[in-house]
Structure formats: structure tokens, C-alpha cells
Structure prediction request, 310 residues.
Amino acid sequence: MATTKDLIIQIHRTFLDHRDKIPLLKTFKKGVLPPLPVFPAMAILPKRDDFSYVYSGGKYRVQREFEIQIIAKSLKKRDARDQVQTLMDGCIRIIRDNPSFNDLCYDTYAESQDLEDPIERTDSVLSIGTIKMLCFSFENKPTRAVRSVSLYESSSTHLLSQIYDLFINNKNDVDYPMSGLKNFKVQTLGPTVSFPAAILSELIGDRVRSMSGIDIVSREIRLEIFTKMLDKDFSLFSNLDLCENAKRIIQLDSTLGGAVQDSEIDNISYYRLQDDALGLLYNSIITTVCQTREYLRDEEIMDEKDQKSW
Prediction:
């Protein structure tokens, strides 16, 4: 089973193994580029993972989106643009010829490519191009995954508290450790932050009446993971490792200890942030959709009956 980190490493290795198709390339990084790279330069970055649960037995499909960013520098706009276009064409050929990336996925293709407007400096011109790349693979939920038999009513506050406790109890898990986190809070990180850090919050809720006297509430829970962003492999990988372990801990019990009827991770999004106080950060957001039960109180049931009588 390949993770997002595994794929980034293999994609990077495959591109270097076929360097004859991108001979102009001088710098190629996993993660952000350094402040002063040797041009032309290229970087591969994760953008989003989408999960599709159409199979049984804990198997599911993952669609991973990566961004390949290419930057060239020259004295003339046309030269810089031509360098970027040549490298983009070479990258497309490599992707087309290596759709499985050493059997880590069952299909890969370049969905789109885009050339941005050139950036003019006093002594040079920068041209930037991006390739949106999609990789498809299968995964399985953890073999240790269980499902609680007893389900109980759970409010938004209680659900966040239950997930928080789940992570605290599994902080030193042998398979999916989260001990690298320095801060883990609900709703907000607070005024002082040590990294890596995480925030747990509820995004939206959708209430559906599916049974007499019971509301089924669909809640989107977000877990955000923040790590310092440097132009080093370990900086990106520390974020991806924590994100992968957090995903697995959520998957250990789809009822989250009985707090929900069911839960599935919908997607993981990856961002790069710049904050005046906190600096440059990698930010991964895991969005989990939870189905919870809320029982109507006697007075609510009576109000509902009165409304129907009208």
C-alpha cells in the first residue's frame, strides 16, 4: 500500500531516472524550492487526496493529486517560456511512459498544464508552469480496525472531545504514533504555538430526520496539522507522516468509540501558508464525515405534533 509520501519519493526517483527527457533541469525538489535555486528548477508537491468507498472488506480507492511546478529564468520572456514548455513536455512523456510508478498506483495521468504570466525583474524574467497530475491506487483500512457495538447520542462538543481523546489515547501507538505533535487543541491553537501542531474543529452539520424521535446529523470534522516549512525533505515528510498516522487512527474505529453511527474520511487537502507571526508552514487538513444520532426531547416531540395538527 502506497502513501502520499511513498508516491512523492517514487515520482521524484522516476523523473531523475529519465533525465534524458528533461535535460535542461538543474534543480528538482520534493516540497518547496530553496530561496535561490539553480534554474531551471522543478518541485513536486501534494495537493489533495480523495477517497471513494465503493468496495467491501475495508478496501477503498484513493485519487491523489500532485502539482509539478517548473520555473525557468532568462533575460528574455520567450527564452524563459520556451524552457518551461520544453520541461513540461518532457514531464508529460515521463508520466505517460510510467503510469504505475513502480506499481505504487494502477494509473496516472497529467490532467492539465498551465503557463502563468511571466514575472519581470530588473535583470531577468521568470516563467512558471504547473502540471496537475492524478494518481489512482487502492488502500485497505487498518487490520486492527474495529466497530463499537454500543452507540450513544453525541453532540458536536462531545464528538470533538471524543476524537480528541482518541488521539490522546493513541499518542504512542506502535503503528501510528502521534507523539511528534507539540500542540493539539480543539477549535484554536492559542496565542503561543510549538510545532508540529494540530487543531480539531467542526466545519458544518446537516440535520436529517430519518426515524421517529431521532435526528441523524451529518457532521464534517476537520483535523488540521501544521509543521514548519523548509526547503528540506524532512520538513515535508514530517507533515505527511503525521497526516498518514492521523488518518489511520481515525480509521481504527468507524464509530469513534460509539460516538457516531458511522464515519469515513472524505478527503485530505495540502496547503502552504505564510503567517506574519508563525512564518512559513505546511498545512494538511483531514476532513471526516460523521453520522451522529440526536434524540428529540419530549417537549420537542410535542411541539412537532402541535405543528402537524395545524
Q: What stands out?
A: The chain has two domains: 4-140, 156-298. Residues 77-97 form the longest helix (21 residues). The helical segments are 4-17, 77-97, 156-169, 233-251, 298-309. The CA atoms of residues 112 and 132 lie 5 Å apart.
